[in-house]
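pls design
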């Protein structure tokens, strides 16, 4: 049984207030082969929110880069370009602040998508 006090185990019911839209678009309950996913997208979203909040609270910038980049990947896979840009911009900012080597890759994506000059 999971510990409800553990943010990795206990999804929050609230969502991130700055988020433009749900990062899982309607119909994103299938994998690339068309097989139905076994994870509820809303539950996955809540778990991601909990992990982001915990990483912010811990000041874990490496984890923040990872989580925001993963959220960007999920958003892009779901066809939500605005959310993908939102999350990857956050990943990029945290990567820059911490000197993370992933900043270059994130910057290239932002340039390619017209989100950075």
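designed seq:
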């Amino acid at each position: 049984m999971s510990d409800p006090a553990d943010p990795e185990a206990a999804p929050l019911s609230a969502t991130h207030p700055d988020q433009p839209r749900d990062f899982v678009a309607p119909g994103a309950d299938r994998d690339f082969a068309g097989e139905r996913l076994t994870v509820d997208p809303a539950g996955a979203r809540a778990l991601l929110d909990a992990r982001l909040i915990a990483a912010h609270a811990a000041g874990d910038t490496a984890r923040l880069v990872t989580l925001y980049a993963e959220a960007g990947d999920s958003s892009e896979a779901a066809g939500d370009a605005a959310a993908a840009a939102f999350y990857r911009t956050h990943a990029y900012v945290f990567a820059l602040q911490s000197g993370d080597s992933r900043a270059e890759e994130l910057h290239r994506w932002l340039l390619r998508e017209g989100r950075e000059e």
